[in-house]
C-alpha cells in the first residue's frame, strides 16, 4: 500500500505546508482534543484543562478511553502513573488496535500486585487476529510512585516497545520470510483500567481487594506522532513535522539496552515456552 506511506514527495510537500499548523496539534497533548472517553460512566476524568486523565475502577466497573484519530504507522508516547498500594487483580492496558476478527494489535498491559510486590509489564503482538506472542517483564523502578513514559513505535521495519526510552521488546517485519506484519489496518490508541483477578496477579491466586477501591491510574502527555488515517480517503498523511521514527532502526546502543532489559528483567518469553507449543515454537522464534 504505497499510498499509506509518508515517504512520497507529494505527502512530504503537503507536510511542509501544514507543518506549522500541525506542530501545535501534535505536541500539545490535550486529552479533550485527542481522545474520547468510551466507557466507565464517569469513572474516567479529564482534568487540568486536558493535561491529565484519570481512570478508575471499582467493584461495578472499570473505565477507558480511545484516541479520536487512527494511525497507520506511528510513534505513540504516553506517561502513566500506575495504581498505587495494593493493585493486585487490576490491569491497566495501553495498546494500539484495529477493528474486526483479523485485527492487528500491539499491547502493553500492566498487571497489578500487592503493595511492595512488583508490577508485571505484559506485552503481546497480534497480526491478522493471531496473538499468542506474550512477553513479560519486571520494571527497574516502582511505576506507581511517578509518571513514566511508555512508547510504542510502529514503522515498516519493526514494532518496538519502550519504557522511558529504553527498548524492551522488538517485533520485526519478517514479511520476506512469509510472516504477517501489521501494515494495512489503521489502529487507534486505547487505554483502560479493569478487573482481571481471574488471571492477572500470580496467575489469578491473588484477588482484587475491593475494600481498597476505587483504584486509580493517571495518564498525561499523550504524544501521537503518526500517519493519520483518514477513513474513506484510503490514504494517510503524517501528522508530525518530525517523522524520524518512520525510518528508525536499532543502532548498537539500542540493541545493547534491549539485551540488558531482556537478560535482567524479562520473566516470560513465549519463544522459550516449549511446553506451550508442543507442535514447535512459532517460526519467528528461530530467527534472529
Ligand atoms: C507479584 O508478586 C509476586 C511475588 O513477588 C511475583 O511472583 C509476581 O510475578 C508479581 N506480579 C504479578 C502480576 O503477579
Ligand atoms: C526530531 O526527532 C528527533 C528524535 O526524536 C529529535 O532529536 C529532534 O530534535 C527532532 N527535531 C525537531 C525539529 O523536532
UniProtKB/TrEMBL annotation:
PROSITE patterns: GH16_1 (PS01034), GH16_2 (PS51762). Residues 25-219 form the GH16 domain. InterPro entries: Beta-glucanase-like, Beta-glucanase/XTH, Beta_glucanase, ConA-like_dom_sf, GH16_AS, XET_C, XTH. GO terms for biological process: cell wall biogenesis; cell wall organization; xyloglucan metabolic process. SUPFAM superfamilies: Concanavalin A-like lectins/glucanases. Keywords: Apoplast, Cell wall, Cell wall biogenesis/degradation, Disulfide bond, Glycoprotein, Glycosidase, Hydrolase, Secreted, Signal, Transferase. The keyword Transferase applies. Contains at least one intrachain disulfide bond essential for its enzymatic activity. The keyword Cell wall biogenesis/degradation applies. Residues 1-28 form the signal peptide. Gene3D superfamilies: 2.60.120.200. It holds the Pfam family XET_C. One of its GO terms (molecular function) is xyloglucan:xyloglucosyl transferase activity. Glycans are attached at residue 113. It comes from the Eukaryota. Transmembrane segments: none annotated. One of its GO terms (cellular component) is apoplast. Its EC number is 2.4.1.207. It is found in: Secreted, Cell wall; Secreted, Extracellular space, Apoplast. Catalyzes xyloglucan endohydrolysis (XEH) and/or endotransglycosylation (XET). Cleaves and religates xyloglucan polymers, an essential constituent of the primary cell wall, and thereby participates in cell wall construction of growing tissues. Belongs to the glycosyl hydrolase 16 family. This is Xyloglucan endotransglucosylase/hydrolase. It comes from Phoenix dactylifera (Date palm).
